[in-house]
Amino acid sequence: MKKTIITVVGKDTVGIIARVCTYLADNGINILDISQTIVQGYFNMMMIVDSNNTDKPFGDMADELGELGESIGVVIKCQKEEIFDKMHRI
């Protein structure tokens, strides 16, 4: 399974989750876990997704999600799980 960590941060507005989830569904990317919170008007979401069933290269997915984030006023970042694990290992 190719897991990817996606983070979304920015000022809260209507439709952030819907837009991100629509992109993922349209590209065959399954959400395995999701956590979101709003603190004093700021939206923060972390998702773990399975990108096994997408034909899209990781770089393209990350770029497109970044552009989507810009269009809705948030910052969206993607990291491969193995890189995330290695970065946070002591």
Question: Mind explaining what this structure looks like?
Answer:
- This protein has 90 residues and is an alpha+beta fold.
- It has helices spanning 16-26, 58-72, 81-87, and strands spanning 3-11, 30-39, 42-50, 74-80.
- The chain has a four-stranded antiparallel β-sheet with strand order 2-3-1-4.
- The protein is globular, with a radius of gyration of 13 Å.
Q: In a nutshell, what does this entry contain?
A:
With 90 residues, this protein is an alpha+beta fold.
Give the SSE map:
Blueprint: E1 3-11, H1 16-26, E2 30-39, E3 42-50, H2 58-72, E4 74-80, H3 81-87
Helix pairs in contact: 1-2
Question: Uncertain segments of ≥5 residues (pLDDT<50)?
Answer: none
Query: Rg to the nearest angstrom?
Result: 13 Å
Shape summary = globular
Give the percentage of residues in beta strands.
35-45%
Largest sheet: 4 strands, antiparallel
Please count the beta strands (DSSP E, at least 2 residues each): 4
Mean pLDDT: 93
Q: Reading side by side through the largest sheet, how are the strands ordered?
A: 2-3-1-4
The DSSP helix count reads 3
- Straight-line distance between termini: 24 Å
What letter string, H or E per element, gives the SSE order? EHEEHEH
Helix content range: 25-40%
SS class: alpha+beta
What attributes characterize this protein structure?
90 residues; 4-stranded antiparallel β-sheet; 3 helices; single chain; alpha+beta
